[in-house]
């Protein structure tokens, strides 16, 4: 009998240990150690793209992201799954060009494509396996002198702090519905989305690209609810965030993750 109790104690201890490890893993995406990378900048009001950047956010100023944004090389971008994540960046290893004691916080909003016409260590800044971030010049100047151009930096994932709730921008045609999910606090990046009309159950949405999600269903003339799950396995539900008379092109504000 004593052996049975001891064996049961060991099993319970292992389960608690595994649960603690799992929690540690699930939160590691929103608070990570400093890692080495390089950073450059662009000087235009918006990064060069034709459809709102590789994350689909569109006008970054109107979307609330401002100039505190970054385009990421493929090594960091993870095929768009990291869109919306927040990074703290600091300049290192250069007394002449670094702004000492300063860091900048940016949101991942775009992709920096590789240039295979140049070597990774000779102008192909965003070529694999480089970890590279392209910042707006105003964000870059918070950590380095702009004349430095390409600078060694350190970065780490941090929790996102956003004003207001999660934004749902509904677009599409007919039964095809696409929803841009933006202004996400906490982990920032979304891994699963469900949508529900008043005449449907919960429908799993698929990732179209970046943070644009889609479904094919008859959802017109119904209030819409959304269930959003972030990369740290937290879920927030916004009930009837869009009224029954919603239209394509409208944006609605729902609940928010704690940051």
From TrEMBL:
GO CC, alphabetical: extracellular region; membrane
Species whose genome carries this gene: Cinnamomum micranthum f. kanehirae
The entry's keywords: Cell wall, Cell wall biogenesis/degradation, Membrane, Secreted, Signal
Annotated CDD domains: DPBB_EXPA_N (cd22274)
Main localization category: secreted
Protein name (record): Expansin
Similarity field: Belongs to the expansin family. Expansin A subfamily.
Cross-referenced PROSITE patterns: EXPANSIN_CBD, EXPANSIN_EG45
SMART domains: DPBB_1
Subcellular location(s) of the protein: Secreted, Cell wall; Membrane
InterPro entries named in the record: Expan_Lol_pI, Expansin, Expansin/allergen_DPBB_dom, Expansin_CBD, Expansin_CBD_sf, RlpA-like_DPBB, RlpA-like_sf
Protein's job: Causes loosening and extension of plant cell walls by disrupting non-covalent bonding between cellulose microfibrils and matrix glucans. No enzymatic activity has been found.
């Amino acid at each position: 009998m004593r052996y049975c109790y001891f064996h049961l104690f060991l099993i319970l201890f292992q389960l608690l240990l595994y649960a603690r490890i799992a929690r540690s893993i699930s939160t590691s995406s929103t608070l990570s150690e400093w890692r080495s990378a390089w950073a450059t900048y662009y000087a235009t009001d918006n990064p060069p793209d034709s459809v709102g950047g590789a994350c689909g956010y569109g006008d970054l100023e109107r979307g609330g992201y401002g100039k505190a944004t970054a385009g990421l090389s493929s090594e960091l971008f993870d095929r768009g799954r990291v869109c919306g994540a927040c990074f703290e960046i600091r300049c290192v290893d250069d007394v002449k060009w670094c702004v000492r004691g300063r860091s900048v916080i940016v949101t991942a909003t775009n992709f920096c494509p590789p240039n295979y016409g140049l070597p990774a260590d000779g102008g192909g800044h965003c070529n694999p396996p480089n970890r590279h971030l392209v910042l707006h010049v105003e964000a870059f100047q918070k950590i380095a002198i702009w004349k430095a151009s390409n600078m060694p930096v350190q970065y780490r994932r941090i929790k996102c702090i956003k004003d207001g709730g999660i934004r749902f921008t509904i677009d599409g045609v007919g039964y095809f519905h696409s929803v841009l999910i933006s202004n996400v606090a906490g982990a920032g990046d979304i891994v699963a989305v469900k949508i529900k009309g008043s005449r449907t159950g919960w429908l799993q949405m698929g990732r179209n690209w970046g943070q644009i999600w889609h479904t094919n269903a008859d959802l017109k003339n119904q209030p819409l609810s959304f269930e959003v799950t972030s990369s740290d396995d937290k879920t927030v539900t916004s009930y009837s965030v869009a009224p029954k008379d919603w239209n394509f092109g409208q944006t609605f504000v729902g609940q928010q993750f704690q940051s």
